[in-house]
Write a structure and sequence with these properties.
Blueprint lengths: L7 H6 L1 H9 L5 H10 L1 H22 L2 E5 L3 E7 L3 E9 L9 H9 L6 E9 L4 H10 L3 E3 L2 H14 L1
Antiparallel strand pairs: 1-2, 1-5, 2-3, 3-4
Helix pairs in contact: 3-4, 4-6
Length: about 160
């Protein structure tokens, strides 16, 4: 497998898509039930192939990721050739950006000297989707990129 197998809940949510996937291989409900009972290793293999297919589709569309921790934000913009990263580090006692009131403090005090901004860019050291998947496995979530773009604009305006 290239990625990880979808959870039972994810398979249930993608029930229709999985049925279409099986139908494309000429496997109907009756045949699928028989495969699960008589050849569980083949059923598992089909589920793995479908999981990789779903992950590949999701990762190919992922352009932004966010990872929040108590005192920092890691924001990623995933281009074709490279990944751009912005780190927002808050050096304020008792801050927890996972709490909405503290995150609001950051938004209201973005120019406070206790807030550090770092940005960088690096080319992918392996396939793009594998690197994005790795970041997701480490706790990042796919986003629309509004926070990345807002902070990027703010940093760019400050450096001009």
């Amino acid at each position: 497998m290239k990625y990880t197998k979808l959870s039972k809940e994810q398979f249930e949510e993608l029930n229709e898509e999985f049925a279409v996937f099986l139908a494309a291989q000429s496997i109907d409900v009756k045949e699928w039930t028989k495969i699960k009972e008589e050849k569980p290793e083949l059923a598992d293999k089909e589920m793995e192939v479908f999981s990789d297919f779903v992950w590949e589709k999701v990762l190919s569309k992922a352009n932004y990721l966010e990872h929040f921790s108590a005192d920092s934000l890691n924001l990623f913009k995933c281009g074709e050739e490279a990944i751009h990263r912005i780190v927002v580090k808050v050096n304020k006692e008792g801050i927890n950006l996972l709490e909405s009131k503290d995150f609001e403090w950051l938004l209201d005090n973005s120019k406070d000297p206790r807030v550090e901004y770092l940005k960088g860019k690096k080319g992918y050291s392996q396939e793009r989707n594998l690197e994005i998947f790795d970041l997701i496995q480490k706790g990042s979530v796919v986003s629309e990129g509004k926070l990345f773009e807002a902070i990027h604009s703010m940093i760019s305006a400050q450096s001009n």
